[in-house]
Protein 1
Amino acid sequence: MNRNIKKLMSGHKNFMWFLSVTIMLSFMATFANAQSGKVDFSGNWVLNESKSNLGDNGGRRGGGNFVAKQEANLLTVDRTRTNQDGQTTTTTSKYTLDGKESVNTTGRGDSKSTAKWSADGKSLTIVTKFSFDGNEMISTEVWTLPDAKTVSIAATRKNRDGEDVKTTRVYDKK
């Protein structure tokens, strides 16, 4: 009987050790993800025009409400806009979050984007190159989360005269 108790206790100790290590590793993985410091832009976002600086032309280009889904290395943005004819359209853009180039296709052709995190992980800069009327255009967007319920996207692009056009679109979480 003593042997059976010793066996049982030995098995119990091994089980407890295994359980303790498993729990500890689980906490470490969760803590490491939380400490990566990178903000998460996931959510359903609605343009707040009163808080935005949309520029001289209304800054509608790139505006509209959007839904963002952020996974380990991918940001997917489903953007809904109303065009000049009053029709609502949705476009999907996908950006890898490791600095590698992403290609997105729209009705106007392909665009090539790179997305890079700031050193502190608090902002994401997306640089997009595309052709418009035979000219290569470059836009830069800097995404930040001023708070948990707000996304701010500061954008810079050149107009047809080569001058920088700057806008800031602020979105509220729905």
Note: The two ends are 65 Å apart (CA to CA).
Protein 2
Amino acid sequence: MSFSVEARKEAARVPCEKRCCALAELSGAALGSGALTFKGPGRYALSLSVGGAFAAERYLRLFKRFLHCDCLMAAVKSSRLGGQVRYEVSPPENELPRVLKALKLLDKDQPFGMRSVPAPELIQGECCKQAFLRGLFLAGGSTGDPRRSYHFEIAVGDEALAACTEAVLLSFGLPARRVQRKAQWVVYLKDGEHMATALALIGAHQAMLQLENVRIVKDLRNEANRQANCDSANVDKALAAAEQQLSVIEVIDRQLGVEALPEPLRDVAELRVRFPDASLAELGGMLTPALGKSGVKARMRKLEALAEELVNG
């Protein structure tokens, strides 16, 4: 089972104890799935379409408990989505006016009298906003596999609803963005931390913990790689410096002779020739008395200056 399906299944198991949250979630599911259709003056049809039986069963229970409405459920095979099965939840026709009024899906000032965004009073509280997002996610949401990419998205059919969804996510501090993808509008998050917060908001806490575990492993691996690259770069730098120092000593030995150097410089030069791979700190520890890295570096600079004088005559 994919990570995205697991997240949706977990969200569908979140308990709903408040009527205001149930109405907000059902409104989100209805708007997100394009469930409300215009049939003629004063006539409408409502059929919530979701991608899993677990979500459809959830909405059967919410309609029954909070709206006292026994809905019908049907499985429909879509020809447009590669044969994917969608589940439709529909209130009976005689209950539809009462359901539409409770969900506030009608507005005579809107085209065809139908809302494309939720009624503001349905998503005033934070709990209701979270429920609204959960309804949208169960209707048209998905996530990427965190082992490969961090991606959380909600697809809707209307730009106004996408803008509303983006605004709700922004109210929780999530920098959502929206983009048009063919006939749909997609509201998305790309950062791992933001994806984890979004999963927590819709109630998918186990999916969030799984994501966080993946993030920790990735961060540790990336840190180990950075450290290894840094160590490798330092080793390469030290080897290049040692080669340069050996070249300097070779020039001095050829034109002047190492034995002619003052004792402090001669000792450092001879140790460098004997131990070409040793660090400056290690060379300093071999001297008597011992010398720190900065002291050895100062003597190497004197050798370099002397070599330059000899080369320039």
Note: Residues 205-255 form the longest helix (51 residues).
